[in-house]
Amino acid sequence: MATTTAAITLTSTDLLTDALSLSATNTLYKAGTTIGLDQTTGMAKAYLTATTVVDIFPQLIEGSIAFENKSSWVYICNKSEDETEYITVKICENVIGKLYAGDFLWMPWSMRESENANNHHGDITVAPSVATGMWLEWTCINEGTEYPTENLATA
Amino acid sequence: MAITSTFNLISAAGDLVTDALTLSTTNNLTQAGNSTAIAQTTGLARTNFTNNPIQSKIVYRSNDATTNGANKVYLKNISTTATEYFTVFIDQEEMGRLYAGDWAFFPWSATDGTEETFIVTIANTWAAADTWDFDGITTTAANSTVADIAQQIDNQNFPNWTTAISSAAVTFTARVSGAAGVVTGATAITGDTVTTAGDGTAAITSGAVGTRSESDIIVIPSVVTTMDLEHALFYQ
Q1: What is the pTM of this model?
Q2: How far apart are CA A35 and CA B168, in angstroms?
Q3: What is the residue extent of each domain of chain A?
Q4: ipTM greater than 0.95
Q5: What is the mean pLDDT of chain B?
Q6: Pairwise CB contact (< 8 Å): A107 & B82
Q7: What backbone torsions phi and psi does residue B64 show, to the nearest 5 degrees?
Q8: Do residue A108 and residue B10 have CB atoms under 8 angstroms apart?
Q9: Share of chain B above pLDDT 90, in %
């Protein structure tokens, strides 16, 4: 069985009177089981040079529900070193938050259709704050991805 | 001051993929657009969900943090039963499910709505012992001076509103954003009552309807039996 573990540590010696030392580790399982997740999109690294909103998992077929509510985990990291640069992360049309330089997120993903019922299936998008170039990394580890079939249509 | 977050994603060679996966990221949590450390937190909380029928809870309201701040949210499902999960929503959009032992850490823009607000102006002839009721609080006039009565109102601790005073006018602002339906127009609210021996008035001289926030973090358990969620918010 594939075993992938995700761990976080949050520490601070001076945020509170007492030291903060929070740790969590979990093994990534298929939904409702103890069978390890065994598929991934692979780690993507991209240099985005426009502030355009980008769908970072375009291979997800819009309109497909094959993997809706299955177990999927998303990692996104803003590799910029300029503290003023950020990316805005959305799920469907709804802003989750902004990742500033060095910030990362680790979140579950239901691939659930947008509440607006426009077949976006929970698209995760990012939009850089500047067009001067920003490095990003992202990956998805999941139960599977329904890939588009070959498109033989000609223009 | 500093909060350090470290993320590790590990899988042995030949396990998830042929090569070993060893991803490690470390970052200090800083405010939006600068290097000043995040300095506020709700603390690590633990919330029990035991409801039949199943009910959602708002774990964090947008009012809890600065809109577009570099806020961070930590959530963990404490359950040890593999089939039990929490579904996490950002407002109306489903983000994902946290199964037993799963945790998440993500930025949060805390996009706030607007709070309902209105101004009540104490006027005309009031007498000692006249009253104004609102939000479950009764203010009883100590004398007939309208500015004093307004000051008495401002001194109250309203459960759902904050107040500010200017002469005989008291400005009310809802503690939480949303269209609660208390303010119904530019000069009207519901739920207030004046009882006066004279012709005293508590006129609504200004009002604005609120709008709901669009990024409250809402969590729904999968079962009616007990489930615990651990959570923390680090915010500007």
Answers
A1: 0.91
A2: 68
A3: 39-142
A4: no
A5: 95
A6: no
A7: -75, -15
A8: no
A9: 89
User: Which residues 4-23 in chain A show a CB within 8 A of chain B?
Assistant: 4-16, 20, 22
DSSP track, B6-25 = EEEEEE-TTTSSSS-EEEEE
Confidence of residue A119 (pLDDT cuts 50, 70, 90): low
Q: Which chain B residues have a beta carbon less than 8 Å from that of A114?
A: 93
Sign of the CA dihedral with B157 first, then B160, B162, and B166 last: negative
Contact residues on chain A for B106, CB-CB shorter than 8 A: 89, 96-97, 105-107
A144/chain B closest Cα distance in angstroms: 13
- Whether residue A122 and residue B93 make contact (CB cut-off 8 A), yes or no, is yes
Interface of A with B in 98-117 (CB under 8 A): 98-100, 102-110, 112, 114-115
CB atoms within 10 A of CB B22: 11
Helix (H, G, I), strand (E, B) or coil at B64: helix
Question: What residue spans of chain B are helical by DSSP H?
Answer: 146-155
Reply yes or no on whether the pLDDT at A146 is more than 80: no
CATH number of A39-142: 2.60.120.10
Task: Say if CB B230 and CB B78 are below 8 A apart.
Answer: yes
Overall average pLDDT of the B131-137 stretch? 97
- The rounded distance, in Å, linking the Cα atoms of B215 and B26 is 27
User: Pick the residue with more confidence: A28 or A155?
Assistant: A28
Window 57-96 of A, Cβ < 8 Å to B: 69, 71-72, 75, 77, 83-84, 86, 88-89, 91-96
pLDDT per residue over A52-103, tens digit each? 999 998 877 666 677 888 899 999 999 999 999 999 999 988 899 999 999 9
Give the total residue count for chain B: 236
Task: Place A120 in a pLDDT band, splitting at 50, 70 and 90.
Answer: low
If you average pLDDT over residues A130-146, what whole number do you get? 93
Instruction: Give yes or no for residue B73 having a pLDDT over 90.
Output: yes
Q: Mutate which of A95, A113, A142 to test chain B, going by most B C-beta atoms within 10 A?
A: A95
Gap from A155 CA to chain B (nearest CA, Å)? 36
Average pLDDT for residues B23-38, to the nearest whole number?
94
H/E run at residue A74: strand A72-78
